[in-house]
Predict the structure.
Amino acid sequence: MNNSPPVAPKRTGLARVWHATLYSWQGLYAAWFEPAFRQEALLAMLGLPAAFWLGQSWLETGFLIACLAFVLVVELLNTGIESAIDRIGPQWHELSKRAKDMGSAAVHISLLLCGGVWLSALWRWWAV
């Protein structure tokens, strides 16, 4: 006998897109209550208009905005890793520590990249 619950059929087409969009909004809503994500999102909101002011071409403006978005994406992934590890249990484990440390390192690298790109654009703006 099979005691497993029945599996719902997979959504396709627009229903899949609609539900995926709802799940994404739920993820963004949950991320907003993470202090690190909220700080980076607020910084990105300030950086968005600044990118249009600072960028000297559409390509440079796009790159400045992409760097801000990249930090948010990496922070979302890091938060997902941390949440999954915390779901497993509160006890300390070397692999859990490594996973969290690597997620943190990814955020750090994305922030360094973003800062470097923005400093480069500022340098170019002031040097000209």
Notes: DSSP finds four helices and no strands in the chain. The mean pLDDT is 94. The first helix runs from residue 13 to 32.
